[in-house]
């Protein structure tokens, strides 16, 4: 589902802005947040070292998701509302309701992480895992709706320059010490054609160096958090 949506609407091509990088970002949120409940439940009560690793992971991706939704609202949603209000009208209520539900669950997850960090108890871990599971259910529904209904509208009505700004601001949310990891995450599950377009924008030395370094950074991180350098792909993509 990289060249078009589930109902056949294209996301790139003549006269369209290529918005497929949004799907790459979504795959990372689905995988890393989708695996988080299992990672939390696997931490033994009182194991503060392991708890800290998993809590840091969940905190990182909640922060990235918060930033992602913020720049969507600021850079994309407002522009679309101005340009094609009639086309967006059927989606406004659904998207706002989904964003509010996801935001509320993100707040609960942050509070749950705080409690777990204080106690490292199995009960607080289980409470956090349950919240993260609920968050993933709501988030995956929202991402499917966004990819099916909103991305085709973006492809037709957002300029390439606006999309570049959105992509740049999305990357800016990744901590500098995590940039190689972020690149490796995109490589792990992203459409090679889409990733290739982004790689070709880099200076020649980086085009050669970043892919192997990024892949290695992701393997190391995944092994530390998920216990395997090759965590499952395709999480949250089926209804």
Task: Walk me through the structure.
Residues 19-153 form the Hemerythrin-like domain. InterPro entries: Hemerythrin-like (IPR012312). It holds the Pfam family Hemerythrin. The protein is globular. The protein has a single domain, classed as Up-down Bundle (Four Helix Bundle (Hemerythrin (Met), subunit A)), CATH 1.20.120.520. It is 76% helix and 0% strand. The protein has 239 residues and is mostly helical. Helix 1 (21-34) runs antiparallel to helix 5, helix 4 packs antiparallel against helix 5 and helix 7 crosses helix 9 (204-226). The chain has helices at 21-34, 36-41, 48-83, 85-119, 122-157, 160-172, 179-189, 192-199, 204-226.
**Largest sheet entry:** none
CATH homologous superfamily caption: nmb1532 protein domain like
What is the CATH T-level topology? Answer: Four Helix Bundle (Hemerythrin (Met), subunit A)
Tell me the radius of gyration: 18 Å
- Find the count of extended strands (DSSP E, 2+ residues): 0
Uncertain segments: none
CATH architecture name: Up-down Bundle
Total of DSSP H or I helical runs spanning 4+ residues: 9
Structural class: mainly alpha
């Amino acid at each position: 589902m990289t060249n078009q949506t589930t109902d056949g609407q294209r996301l790139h091509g003549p006269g369209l802005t290529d918005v497929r990088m949004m799907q790459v970002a979504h795959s990372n949120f689905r995988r890393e947040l989708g695996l988080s409940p299992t990672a939390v439940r696997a931490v033994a009560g009182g194991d503060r070292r392991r708890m800290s690793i998993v809590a840091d992971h969940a905190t990182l991706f909640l922060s990235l998701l918060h930033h992602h939704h913020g720049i969507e609202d600021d850079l994309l949603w407002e522009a679309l509302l101005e340009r094609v209000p009639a086309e967006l009208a059927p989606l406004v209520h659904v998207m706002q309701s989904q964003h509010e539900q996801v935001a509320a669950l993100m707040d609960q997850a942050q509070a749950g992480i705080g409690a777990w960090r204080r106690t490292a108890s199995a009960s607080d871990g289980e409470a956090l895992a349950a919240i993260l599971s609920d968050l993933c259910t709501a988030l995956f529904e929202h991402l499917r709706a966004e990819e099916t209904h909103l991305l085709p509208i973006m492809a037709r009505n957002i300029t390439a320059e606006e999309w570049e700004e959105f992509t740049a601001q999305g990357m800016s949310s990744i901590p500098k010490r995590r940039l190689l990891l972020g690149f490796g995450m995109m490589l792990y599950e992203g459409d090679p054609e889409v990733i290739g377009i982004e790689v070709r924008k880099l200076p020649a030395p980086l085009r050669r160096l970043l892919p192997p370094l990024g892949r290695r950074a992701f393997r190391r991180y995944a092994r530390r958090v998920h216990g395997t350098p090759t965590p499952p792909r395709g999480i949250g993509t089926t209804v």
